Amino acid sequence: SDIYRAGISGARPVVPADPGRLEAAARKALSAEAFAYVAGGAGAERTVAANRAAFDRWQVWPRPLRDVSARDLSTSFLGVHRPHPLLLAPLGVMELVHRDADLAIARAAASLGLPHVLSNQASFPMEEIRDAAPGAARMFQLYWSSSDDLNASLLRRAEASGCEAIVVTVDTHLLGWRTRDLDLAYLPFTRGLGIAQYTSDPVFQQLVRERASAAGPAESVRITPKAIAAGVSIARKGAALTGAGLRDSLRSPLPRAAVETFLDVFSTPALTWDDLARAREWTTLPIIVKGIVHPDDAVRAVDAGADGVWISNHGGRQIDASVPTLAVLPDIADRIAGRVPIVFDSGVRGGADAFIALALGATMVALGRPYAFGLAVAGEAGVAAVVRNVLAELDITLGLAGITAVADVGRGGLRAV
Ligand code: FNR
């Protein structure tokens, strides 16, 4: 009702409430390359469309005449009581969208009490993100590196930065076939974007030094931890400005060594279920496995000791014509039968979508692109406004469905089409 009151009093909304208009506003605010990176999906983008279409198979029953004047959106997740069943999915390379990137996102999340999952490809080191919003709920998302030492180091830092869980993303052992990025010849990572988590890491710095000294003793002299971070940031300014300036900006051997080291360690297609078990040796934090779509994999993750399962097809960015996530949510929820919490994402655009996901068994619902669009339009305030809109619509939908608490949302609230 605050949002409606603000509208009546003539205050201009910070971001459009309609998801389509929000995306259009972000497109206007961003360079063609940045918008393509955020909005794009794999191949012909059939998964992006299927993620949305899967929501059309469910309808919410209106249930009037049940006192819903007091409504409770709170929920419990990983043993902690949370004000809302939403969280912010990890998004890499947000420096393409806004200069404050993850710092702005962390502050917005903190202001609303939502957990923010810091991306392995964030634009700021996790320690700086923590300092931007100390005390906020946060988790760290790991892309499993080919270097175990680097994995262990990143998880150590995550623990020290106050992260309450580790999210291991397992659907990106190969980068998807990103047609929009390919056609613009713009792959952010190869320009040294989104690698701040690495350049700030002592194990990574050592790997860069080794590579640079193999290239010749003259280069290795200049390679200090500070120089690695500074060199990459100079290189990426060039790349960001020109779009096509990759070769020029990476001519310096210093960022070249850093970017090439990144490309080597980023992830490994050899990763298996057996490897995953090793994460336990590196951290005592709860481990959530993100990127699960097949129900057998969901059960296997739980059997392997995962503390949570995150159903996601990466917002349709990995496989074209993938199975949409909402289609498998009921089956996975049945198979897991409450043993661990379920996080759900891919295609959620509004509060009614969140309601449907909760009704079909999600414990927490994650947002991806919508809050990146909010960041593009209005920075920190834009992220907060997008989340507030989703929460407001969820709250209204709950009440109109005759339900007073998120905990009571169930399949009886829906009709299958
Ligand atoms: C992502 N996603 C992602 N996932 C992850 O585990 N680590 C990452 O660094 C990123 N980076 C990233 C960047 C951008 C621009 C997008 C759009 C997505 C996937 C993300 O966490 C989430 O699974 C999807 O965004 C959810 O789908 P929707 O809400 O975007 O449809």
TrEMBL record:
InterPro entries: Aldolase_TIM, Alpha-hydoxy_acid_DH_FMN, FMN-dep_DH, FMN_HAD, FMN_hydac_DH_AS. Glyoxylate binds at Y37, Y143, R178, H314, R317. Keywords: Flavoprotein, FMN, Monooxygenase, Oxidoreductase. Its cofactor is FMN. The active site is at H314. It comes from the Bacteria. Belongs to the FMN-dependent alpha-hydroxy acid dehydrogenase family. Residues 11-417 form the FMN hydroxy acid dehydrogenase domain. One of its GO terms (molecular function) is FMN binding. SUPFAM superfamilies: FMN-linked oxidoreductases. This is Lactate 2-monooxygenase. It comes from Microbacterium protaetiae. FMN binds at residues 90-92, 119, 141, 169, 290, 312, 345-349, 368-369. Pfam families: FMN_dh. PROSITE patterns: FMN_HYDROXY_ACID_DH_1, FMN_HYDROXY_ACID_DH_2. PANTHER family: FMN-DEPENDENT ALPHA-HYDROXY ACID DEHYDROGENASE PB1A11.03, S -2-HYDROXY-ACID OXIDASE-RELATED.
